Amino acid sequence: MKIRGIQLKSIEARRYMNHTERPKQVRIDHNSTVNQISVMEENVANIDFQYTASYGPVGMIKLEGSLIYENEDAKKIADEWKKTRKMPNQIASHIHTAVMHACVPEAVGIAKDLGLPPPIPLPQVRLGDTPKKGHAGPEVA
After folding, report:
1. Considering the domain boundaries, does residue 47 fall inside one?
2. Strand arrangement of the beta sheet that strand 29-41 belongs to
3. 38-49 residue pLDDT tens
4. For residue 59, what are the domain limits?
């Protein structure tokens, strides 16, 4: 399984609220969708995708693109996709992770330009506080 050649084709971003309006809390929802899988060569497929970061009533960022997926089962996966619009979980996980890794950094820059919060949780720095017993910090892999 190899993913290469991720490229963006379309960027759409909007801020719905004025910059002076500030909602109390903004929920950011991420969504990655595969729109089309087509066979390019025997073991190579082209996958069209869409990534969306939705800020509810505040705004949204949508990126569309494609990637090249290499696998000995590429034709079988594309045929199954055309019939059922589904793919094996392990492959879907691999593809959606690659889409997120490509799109989230792009979305961070776009969010900054629009005055939206970044679509990733920023680390909290606390100086001088001693951690509470039994309370662990975030897990970092």
Report:
1. yes
2. 2-15, 59-70, 44-54, 29-41
3. 999 889 999 999
4. 2-114
> What total of structural domains would you count in the chain?
1
CATH of the domain at 47: 3.10.420
- Comparing CA positions, the residue from 91, 11, 15, 5 lying closest to residue 50 is 11
List the structure tokens of 27: 């929920």
Please classify residue 116 by burial: count the beta carbons closer than 10 Å to its beta carbon, then call 0-12 exposed, 13-18 middle and 19+ buried: buried
pTM of the model: 0.81
Q: Alpha helices of the chain — where are they, by DSSP H?
A: 74-84, 89-114
Q: How far apart are CA 10 and CA 107, in angstroms?
A: 12
141 within a domain of the structure (yes/no): no
